[in-house]
């Protein structure tokens, strides 16, 4: 099927398989920030934003995204960098494989709720798995980011 | 000063920004898709396999079965060579030994067609009896490795005719005699489960022939040099024709310390000449890679009325699953990295068998036996305290190892063979205990309190030790080169698997060279370019690789001074990181290096360093937690976890802290939630993130980590390891806390709420 995707502001036209998912499409097109961690939509490592909505790209059909606006970490480098400064200051990106999906969730959260409490952050990010860090460092980093942002 | 500073990871920002960094990010676009057809039976013989229909599909370029791959036998374990693991695995075998074992490999240009081809392969199996319960495996009438000639490189107690992958036994002193002289003897049996690594990035590998026609394998491996050795030898290719590159890895925890997909992909490329790649599905990661060795541990402690521990005797039965990778070494660590904690004993014994079963192979996993043994040992210390009506902390402090002491176990038990005698030069366990007691408010909280809502809280503690590399076996090396403009390249074989080793090694080089860390450019883990390193395992990187970097950097200072002497024609030279001085002359390092490479007395300055440990100084730790139990449901919640760690000098406090926090949560996961559960037919029940419960951010309570002031004289800059120790204490600390809260002693992991409820209501013990 012919599909046009608007990825990070650029138009990509190509033909997609009917059962192709955005995760595979995006990686094929070179957006390597999008990672696969599971086969059951349970890890959050593939998170992207489609028309303003946070979605797991591993279970979003590419054809369904026709003409939609897609945002990956590649498209929001400066926003990500601002948060990442706090992550790297804590050293919470260990293997870093979960980080891009984690960043997309945070960016989506801050769009919806610019002043979340740490509890709200935890709830929103509950689906973002991390096997390395133990999470506490992530929460310290996010709290530090929010404090600076909100002051 | 660069050491003992929380410098951000050299690759951290790039990873968060999503830069291509991991194996699959670099896979050639035209790589053949490789998939593995896996066994639906736990134990069967392939009587016929027909691939003709699959091969008729034009997109399919290669199908491999046991009939057309090299018939070689080896160990997939990425360990020092000769390996202390049995040679019992083949690339593809006529016998399949667990559900998920490899049957055939299919490679093609389209994923759909590969899937179709897999469905077209007709396999006939003669199904055999399977052994799932590891307690029945030894001398079972069914033999799991009966057909082929398994062997070991040196005696490891391997006996395939008894389903025995490895076994070991030692005794120091006379345990039965000592026990007779004890006032109390306490025996108990503990069970630990198979845990899945669940690292974020599924195993994956890409292979291609480079422009010099060399087989290049890019892999998510913890041990690139071992991969090169095992692959090249068994494919009959010269080592010089194989290059293994490890890009960034999405976590390993031991699960990538073995050959997994490398043989399949390398063979496809070798046969077709085309690039190929394989990405494990999550299901495959769960079913067909590794788990932690499940164990039954029988432990006996003998003590006097005053609490003096006189004898310890540990007997282990370990389940290695279908193949015996890491069987002997994990077994030995179970004793060797626990029993020396209480070194004042008169006698100590350890023995164990590692048996084959028809389940997912067990392999290396952070803690590597130490966590299993710790659960038993640190539980029984509390049980002994209860029996003697003593304070468990007091019993520990009375009997535990101290600075300036040793344990004969260090000399008797190594990893796979004898160990090396070692004097403990740094051990701040007393301080660790004091710290956690203070921070958790032990005195106020011990042993338990009932909350107004009827919930019960209890506190528990455990001590732990680990090692720092494998002495006398594992080597690491580093090369440093001075570049024009005065910055350095640090080239190391060490394998950063997310641990931050590239960063801490750069810190060590920067410290010795007296330059800022950003003047050190690190390149690691590429068998063509980087010097040898055994890899990321056994908590070796900081200590072993760290030393090699320190030596290389010290040598670089010498090389610079030597060049300065010749350049300026004087013996009176010095270097301070910025400037090279010679008599009354001076030149910045920037200018000096530029002149050296472009205009005068031209010469490249390079240094190297390599290191093998003579000892493996243990890091130590005390862990304490408070749990809350709802007596109505048995629900157990870890309210807070406190840890105080002695890892010598902390090279990078931030990275060390996250290591400990992450390890603690994996340990808490193992204690409360995680278990690879096999049905009677050998099917892994929980093979996805939906069914296998790794702790999420909703499960974690506050963790308070502190590092005691400590300096290990034998360590680089005083450092010991920190990667594994954090995982060891949660099982026993939580079990002890549950006991203190409820009076129920749980000796089986995971500690399940329903079991606790049952025990509380029926007042029965579990085992
Ligand atoms: S890959 Fe795991 S949720 Fe999408
Ligand atoms: S940093 Fe490795 S999974 Fe999060």
Structure commentary:
The complex is a heterodimer of chains A (151) and B (767). Chain A is an alpha+beta fold. Chain A has two domains: 2-74, Beta-grasp domain (Ubiquitin-like (UB roll), Roll); 76-150, DNA polymerase, domain 1 (Orthogonal Bundle), CATH 1.10.150.120. Chain A contains five helices and five strands, in the order E-E-H-E-E-E-H-H-H-H. Chain A has a five-stranded mixed beta sheet with strand order 2-1-5-3-4, with helices on one face. In chain A, helix 2 (77-90) packs across helix 5 (136-150). Chain A is globular, with a radius of gyration of 15 Å. With 767 residues, chain B is α+β, with helices and mostly antiparallel strands. Chain B has three domains: 12-128 and 200-251 and 256-288, Aldehyde Oxidoreductase, domain 3 (Alpha-Beta Complex), CATH 3.90.1170; 294-470 and 615-762, Aldehyde oxidase/xanthine dehydrogenase, molybdopterin binding domain (Aldehyde Oxidoreductase, domain 4, 2-Layer Sandwich); 475-612, Aldehyde oxidase/xanthine dehydrogenase, molybdopterin binding domain (Aldehyde Oxidoreductase, domain 4, 2-Layer Sandwich), CATH 3.30.365. In chain B, strands 3-5-1-12-9-10-11 form a seven-stranded mixed beta sheet, sandwiched between helices. In chain B, a hairpin with a 5-residue loop joins strand 16 and strand 17 (456-465). The longest helix of chain B has 28 residues, at 541-568. Classes of the chains: A alpha+beta (151), B alpha+beta (767). Chains A and B meet through helix 2, helix 3 and helix 5 of A and helix 1 and helix 17 of B. The structure holds FE2/S2 (inorganic) cluster (2 copies).
């Amino acid at each position: 099927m012919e599909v046009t995707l608007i990825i990070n502001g650029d138009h990509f036209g190509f033909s997609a398989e009917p059962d192709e998912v955005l995760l595979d499409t995006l990686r094929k097109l070179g957006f390597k920030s999008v990672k696969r961690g599971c086969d059951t939509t349970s890890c959050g490592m593939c998170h992207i934003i489609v028309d303003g909505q946070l979605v797991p790209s591993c279970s979003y059909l590419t054809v369904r995204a026709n003409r939609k606006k897609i945002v990956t970490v590649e498209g929001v480098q400066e926003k990500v960098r601002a948060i990442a400064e706090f992550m790297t200051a804590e050293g919470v990106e260990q293997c870093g494989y979960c980080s891009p999906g984690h960043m997309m969730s945070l960016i989506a959260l801050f769009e919806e709720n610019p002043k979340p409490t740490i509890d709200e952050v935890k709830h929103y990010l509950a689906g973002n798995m991390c096997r390395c860090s133990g999470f506490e460092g992530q929460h310290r980093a996010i709290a530090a980011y929010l404090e600076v942002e909100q002051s | 000063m660069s050491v003992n500073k929380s410098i951000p990871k050299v690759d951290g920002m790039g990873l968060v920004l999503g830069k291509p960094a991991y194996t699959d990010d670099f896979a050639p676009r035209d790589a053949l898709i490789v998939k593995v057809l896996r066994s639906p039976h736990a134990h069967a013989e392939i009587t016929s396999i027909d691939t003709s229909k699959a091969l008729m599909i034009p997109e399919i370029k290669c199908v491999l079965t046991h009939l057309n791959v090299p018939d070689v036998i080896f160990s997939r374990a990425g360990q020092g060579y000769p390996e202390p693991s049995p040679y019992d695995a083949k690339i593809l075998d006529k016998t399949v030994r667990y559900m998920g074992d490899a049957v055939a490999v299919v490679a093609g240009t389209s994923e759909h067609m590969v899937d179709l081809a897999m469905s077209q392969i007709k396999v006939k199996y003669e199904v055999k009896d399977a052994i799932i319960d590891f307690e029945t495996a030894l001398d079972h009438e069914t033999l799991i490795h009966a057909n082929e000639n398994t062997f070991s490189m040196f005696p490891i107690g391997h006996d395939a005719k008894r389903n025995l992958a490895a076994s070991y036994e030692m005794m120091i002193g006379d345990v039965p005699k000592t026990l007779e002289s004890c006032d109390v003897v306490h025996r108990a049996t503990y069970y630990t489960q198979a845990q899945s690594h669940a690292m974020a990035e599924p195993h994956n590998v890409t292979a291609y022939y480079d422009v010099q026609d060399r087989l290049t394998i890019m892999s998510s491996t913890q041990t690139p040099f071992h991969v090169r050795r095992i692959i090249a030898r068994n494919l009959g290719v010269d080592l010089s024709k194989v290059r293994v590159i490890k890009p960034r890895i999405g976590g390993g925890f031991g699960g990538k310390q073995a050959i997994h997909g490398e043989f399949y992909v390398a063979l496809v490329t070798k046969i077709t000449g085309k690039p190929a790649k394989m990405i494990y599905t999550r299901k495959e990661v769960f079913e067909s890679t590794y788990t932690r060795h499940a164990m039954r541990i029988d432990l006996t402690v003998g003590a006097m009325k005053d609490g003096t521990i006189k004898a310890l005797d540990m007997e282990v039965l370990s389940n290695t699953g279908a193949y015996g990778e890491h069987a002997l070494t994990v077994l030995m660590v179970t004793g060797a990295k626990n029993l020396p904690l209480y070194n004042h004993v008169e006698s100590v014994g350890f023995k164990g068998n590692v048996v084959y079963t028809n389940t997912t192979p067990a392999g290396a996993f952070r803690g590597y036996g130490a966590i299993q043994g710790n659960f038993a040992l640190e539980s029984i210390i509390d049980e002994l305290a209860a029996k003697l009506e003593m304070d468990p902390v007091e019993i520990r402090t009375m009997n535990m190892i101290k600075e300036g002491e040793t344990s004969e176990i260090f000399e008797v038990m190594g990893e796979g063979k004898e160990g090396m005698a070692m004097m403990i030069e740094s051990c701040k366990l007393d301080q660790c205990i004091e710290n956690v007691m203070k921070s958790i408010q032990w005195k106020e909280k011990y042993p338990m309190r009932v909350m107004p809502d009827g919930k019960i809280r209890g506190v528990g503690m455990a001590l732990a030790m680990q090692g720092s590399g494998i002495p006398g076996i594992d080597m690491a090396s580093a090369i440093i080169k001075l570049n024009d403009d005065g910055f350095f390249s640090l080239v190391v074989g060490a394998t950063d698997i997310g641990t931050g080793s590239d960063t801490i090694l750069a810190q060590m080089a920067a410290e010795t060279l007296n330059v800022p860390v950003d003047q050190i450019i690190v390149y690691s883990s590429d068998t063509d370019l980087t010097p040898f390193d055994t890899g990321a395992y056994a908590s070796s990187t900081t200590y072993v690789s760290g030393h090699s970097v320190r030596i290389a950097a010290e040598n670089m200072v010498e090389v610079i001074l030597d060049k300065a002497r010749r350049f300026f024609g004087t013996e009176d030279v010095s270097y301070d990181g910025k400037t090279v001085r010679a008599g009354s002359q001076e030149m910045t390092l920037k200018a000096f290096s530029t002149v050296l490479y472009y205009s005068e007395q031209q010469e490249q300055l390079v240094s190297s360093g390599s290191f093998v440990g003579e000892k493996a100084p243990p890091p130590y730790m005390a862990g304490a937690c408070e749990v809350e139990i709802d007596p109505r449901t048995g629900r157990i919640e870890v309210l807070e976890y406190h840890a105080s760690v002695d890892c010598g000098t902390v090279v990078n406090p931030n990275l060390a802290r996250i290591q400990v926090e992450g390890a603690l949560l994996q340990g808490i996961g193992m204690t409360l939630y995680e278990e690879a559960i096999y049905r009677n037919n050998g099917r892994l029940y929980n093979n996805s993130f939906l069914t296998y419960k790794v702790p999420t951010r909703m499960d974690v309570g506050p963790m308070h980590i502190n590092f005691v002031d400590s300096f290990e004289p034998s360590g680089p800059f005083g450092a010991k390891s920190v990667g594994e120790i954090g995982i060891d204490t949660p099982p026993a600390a939580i079990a002890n806390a549950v006991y203190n809260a409820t009076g129920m002693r749980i000796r089986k992991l995971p500690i399940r709420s329903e079991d606790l409820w049952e025990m509380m209501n029926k007042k029965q013990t579990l085992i």
